[in-house]
Amino acid sequence: MTPTSQAAASPLPDSAIALQAEPGHLIRRAHQLAVSTFHETHGRQITPVQYALLRALQDAPGIDQVTLADKVALDTSTTADIATRLEAKGWIVRELLPRRQRALRLTPEGEAVLADMLPRVVPMYRRLLEPLEPAEQAEFLRLLRKFVHLNTPSPGAPDSGKPEV
User: Fold this and answer.
1) pTM for this structure?
2) Strand spans (E) along 15-150
3) What are phi and psi of 137, to 5 degrees?
């Protein structure tokens, strides 16, 4: 599709639009809702980004910080900063590798934190997506993956036969 035909097909007008219809505003509000729901469910001792790092380490113990940063879509310096905080909490250990890289692993305390959180994750996301009908939830998640360039189905995605929520 050419830029001209793409603009013509866009639901956005060529002139100013109301704030409540701006994609950036809606994405920011969706993020606020997600973070608020996360904190209501899990408290404030852990952030959604810290949780993402712990989950990535659970899935791939011993990965280096650069690979971890890529998995959770953060820059390497932010990932290193968060890893330092998680290490200070006693939830991960960082082992020095050759060429100044670090391998990261969950500690037993970090594993316990995740074990405590995980039973509440799916109900939390169900509550977050509750305003949408089940088919809308699946479509919303598909579109979010497409929007953030994650076009491969995730485990539990509708096309794998299991519900994604």
Assistant:
1) 0.79
2) 92-96, 102-106
3) -60, -45
